[in-house]
Amino acid sequence: MDLSFSPEENTFREEVRRFVAEKLPDAIRHKVMNGVHLSREEHVQWQRALHGRGWGGVGWPREFGGPGWTPTEQYIFEEECAAAGAPRLISFGLKMIAPVLMAFGSPAQQQRFLPKIMSAEEWWCQGYSEPGAGSDLASVKTRAIREGDHYVVNGQKTWTTLGQYADWIFCLVRTDPEAKKQSGISFLLIDMKSPGVTVRPIITLDGAHEVNEVWLEDVRVPLENRVGEENKGWTYAKFLLGHERTNIAGIGIAKRELARLKRIAAAEGRLDQPLFAAKVAQVEIDLMALEITNLRVLSAEREHKAPGPEASILKIKGTEIQQTISELMMQAVGACALPFKQAGVGPDYAANLGTGYCNLRKLSIFGGSNEIQKNIISQMIMGL
Amino acid sequence: MDLSFSPEENTFREEVRRFVAEKLPDAIRHKVMNGVHLSREEHVQWQRALHGRGWGGVGWPREFGGPGWTPTEQYIFEEECAAAGAPRLISFGLKMIAPVLMAFGSPAQQQRFLPKIMSAEEWWCQGYSEPGAGSDLASVKTRAIREGDHYVVNGQKTWTTLGQYADWIFCLVRTDPEAKKQSGISFLLIDMKSPGVTVRPIITLDGAHEVNEVWLEDVRVPLENRVGEENKGWTYAKFLLGHERTNIAGIGIAKRELARLKRIAAAEGRLDQPLFAAKVAQVEIDLMALEITNLRVLSAEREHKAPGPEASILKIKGTEIQQTISELMMQAVGACALPFKQAGVGPDYAANLGTGYCNLRKLSIFGGSNEIQKNIISQMIMGL
Amino acid sequence: MNFDFNEDQRALADTVHRFVARDYTFEKRRAIRDSKPGWSREVWQVLADLGVLAINIDEDYGGLGYGPQETGLVMGAFGAGLLLEPYLTGAVVAPALIRRAASADFQEEWLPRVATGETIVVLADADARDAPVREVGGNLAGRKAVVAHGGCADLLLVSARCADGLTGLFAVTPGADGVTLRDYPTLDGQRAADLALNDAPAVRLDAGGARDAIDAALDIGLAALCAEAVGIMDATVAATTEYLKTRQQFGQPIGRFQALQHRMADMLLHLEQARSMSYLAAMDCSNDDAAARRRTLSAAKVTVGQACRFIAQNAVQLHGGMGMTDEMILSHWFKRLTAIEMSFGDTDFHLQRFAANLSREARAA
Amino acid sequence: MNFDFNEDQRALADTVHRFVARDYTFEKRRAIRDSKPGWSREVWQVLADLGVLAINIDEDYGGLGYGPQETGLVMGAFGAGLLLEPYLTGAVVAPALIRRAASADFQEEWLPRVATGETIVVLADADARDAPVREVGGNLAGRKAVVAHGGCADLLLVSARCADGLTGLFAVTPGADGVTLRDYPTLDGQRAADLALNDAPAVRLDAGGARDAIDAALDIGLAALCAEAVGIMDATVAATTEYLKTRQQFGQPIGRFQALQHRMADMLLHLEQARSMSYLAAMDCSNDDAAARRRTLSAAKVTVGQACRFIAQNAVQLHGGMGMTDEMILSHWFKRLTAIEMSFGDTDFHLQRFAANLSREARAA
Questions:
Q1: What domains can you pick out in chain D, each with its CATH number?
Q2: pTM listed for this prediction
Q3: Which among B284, C181, D233, D342 has most CB atoms closer than 10 A?
């Protein structure tokens, strides 16, 4: 057992650090460091910078133009980016649909879609969730009826994150209404500019527009935009859900936010209050432990295992830690966290802490609620 | 709304306080105050003292020789007794079988048994739990077969608290093996001196002998010792479980133990440690709240309602508070809690803290586990 | 010992609940929140007509002479309806403060106007950290930060460090020279303001220091805040229970899942403990023994604050994504509960105050 | 980065697991616990023969020259078997301390005997509160309280305040004049002793103070203790999982109840986080940078201590009454986990130490 990174890995870390220091625009860094939402353009700008360096396909193998990193290298990359205040990667294209296309897409689909994901020419969003479905993803109601060389799709998707920016949406649709739940689902790629696609914003409790409803009314989708076989979509869907869980712990982001918490708490004199200091200590300790746990899972993955149910451990602890940090930051500034979107009331760092806390309640709900993750742990790991 | 006790109630409280101060032997008080188990004789001695004052039938109506107190008066009585270090009432006779006999027993049974419970001439124990049954009390396996004017009983009971002291045991037995679970159960009173009754100690993790297995082999029980109708025993059993829940919060005991915790923590200088002091403060606050919650439930009961599912709230919080206090006492003395049953190692007050903590794990398990109580709350109160 | 409300109290509660259900719907509230001032003077007049602005004012001054219990009933109903008007500061804290700190003349002049809704009086106590308010030659200078409903005030009561070394209480007119109010919305949709005083004219109200009176009035406000929280939590727990009964997942109502049932049981435990402490706070908040009063109120705020946090977080969690949407009232209850936990001293503050008292008692013994 | 054990390590772990499974059954342990000394010299010799007493001793002195990782493997296995012999103090702390604090001559004389099991050396560090041990004219006076396995010692290493103001480390022979050991069982079935020194003859081992060396040796012990705890928790979680699969209630295995499933998931989360910190502790416990070492070890003890508490309490709870019986090994794991949480500084102590460091860093920045 050796818990240190190899010299090569340390060199790689230096390389990433240098790159981010040089290429990340200050304006973006400042927003990320202070919990401000980024625009589409800012996300695209950063993805293009990565692409320019040959790092556009994070997590991708070389054969598809990715850098071919090991899980540990990818971990180091994401940790360094997060620490330095780089934007979070837009995962819908890079980490969700891309692995599905690599594994199950036709060569034509791969050639058509993958390069434009890497270069940020096309923005993807997800069409998994439906109103009323929630954690029960397989209860897809959106219907696709085959008419000649097209499907005609009708239905509604929801919780579509940043769907307002998207060019394409990947959708689960029901192609065989007679089949049992998980059967009869197909996996379609739909152009957001198709007639019949309507995006409606969902405003969340922090006043933000991050998620959307996507309405599909008689949307015509060419057959060639179906991934894999008809009625086998649930297989690809599950594969995607497995890959969604890489970097699920969010160690890098949590470290950056912990550092921010410590700066704020110190400025507010809160670290001299024993109860508050103990809570900061507790979350730092939890994060130290989770980092090792995460590296243990990566180490197992390196031996060519896909992310297993252990990822559920990372999801639960990782989201709890991020939520706790956001809560402590808010508490640290007390009444100054209350003014809503008011710059210049209280210290600058206080302005986004209340909405940040509210926003992060999503972490334990989306991406498989933490209750679902505990089902997975107890049933798939422990065999209960 | 008026949260103060009435002048009559305050006078009554004074009266109880005076009585306990005069009549409670110092040796018993000292044991109770320091968490030492009492002998049978000590329990009996105190019950006789209460009986001498006309208070032997705590919780009983006047028609059966009880003092006829209101729930609030009974609460005051038990609180004062606990605060002063009087022994806990032995509830198996007074609070479990007695209410069943009053409600469902024949006049002959009432005359035969009730006076000797009050005067502590006869000690009762419970025969509800069976090996493998746990929380699923209705899954009774002990069989009673009618032979003329007797039942012949075979089976095994367990977790029989202080069964080693008992003269009588009340038992759930299956009289109709064909009937569905809750039907076909009868409620028998069995003389522990009957041939075929064997009591075997169960030693618990604190090294104590508090609970027992009771083996019943061809035990002959006269028909007249059946309570109520044959095969209707589950009705009486549920009635008993309802009554078991009076004073379930244990406010008086918790207050006494909290005072002990504060004495110990002060002596150890622990109240000057902010984290420890905050934990003591937290449990004191929880107890303040629970006391009011308990009085609210009593106030509802006074309007002639039986203890309802609200008692589950009292059970959960009451046992959590007592367990937390025992844990904090142990932590307060640190390493001095480790010596096992060693007087004279460390301060006197340290000697029973480790075993006390271990022993009280039972509180959240017995009397309907706290998980069962949460089922009751969510299903019976909230309708889920 | 009696936990029932009397007939008058029940009638009052009915009145207020009816008002919220009929005249202060979620849609109505949204319109008020989105209006420029963010609250409604018209609603304030309705409240005056209902008599609820008068309940904390003595009958001598045109009030109803009720107390913390009645205030708690009203606050509970307003809590569930998420009232945006300055009831807590204007109709609970201000009258309690004026009665304790000001002269009979001042009381006679202003309390009747508070009761009729004519004048909204708002306390501004907490200083901005970098510019505490001080008396300089009879005028005031300095800043007050995040003054709840400061922008609604017709008259401000401002605490200030005086030349005599005491904390004085001053009447300040919002429109006066040297008085600047920056009014803004808060996370929970309510309003607050930063108050800047630049050699502002002010009339001192107290004789011999107002700190004790301010603390006493704030404690009465804190008890009312606890009652508001319980009202919101009642609504939140009920709505979540209902959601769990109707929402289907994996072929059954999600309320059949035991892990969620137990979570709901935990929420109910928090709620009932908070309700108990809210009653105790109402009983003790006008106690003149400040140490005893603070002990109870700190215990109450800890219990209520922890319940706010637990219930708010889990109600959103159990609602899933729906609980995070602006269109459901649930997310607004969440934000108000979050704000309450941080107001009038947060849970840490009160737990530490209670714990420090334990240490002191131990040293004294 | 590599979390696999090498071949030697796996062979060592196999040896120890086999020993526990075959030669240190629960029944065997019970017999040893109920014997007069409460531990077995015979078992100690078996451990010597297996080589495990030598793993923390340099090859120069007849040892195997292994480190904290190997120690952790052994401690994990001994944890699950609830070994009653003085392995932690005698085979982990003592050699680490001798190597750091004593002269080469002393090392040469004693370390080989420790490796062969001939001599059991026990550290007595924590003073009785009312009578700290002091050096008086070369001899020692005072008392040490609750010395783990003090009664097993052939040689005691005793820390004492010296005339030169330093903490000295002294070799004391248990049988000597003025040395009294009161030996007794502890809650977890292990042994401890109170040591009274009354002008007792002693040989000073250190040159220039031993506090740093003692702390360093105790930190190596703490990392080993964390590994022991993980071994016990592994066994506890596995046994509870198995129990939930077999135990029937209300017509199904209780492991089908979702509330219990989620409790088990929480236990696993605690266990895996504790395992991670136990690895980190093993890596850092011999770090010469005491501040960095303490930071890691405090974090490890907090994580492990909280896991001990959560897993022990819930394992008993989920076993119901059965979990409380002396006849099940589970209740003995519970007690050992309880004792571990309170040993080498409890969770509060380490959390406070870690937090105090945060405050210091912030002030320094």
A1: 7-115 (1.10.540.10), 121-204 (2.40.110.10), 211-364 (1.20.140.10)
A2: 0.97
A3: D233
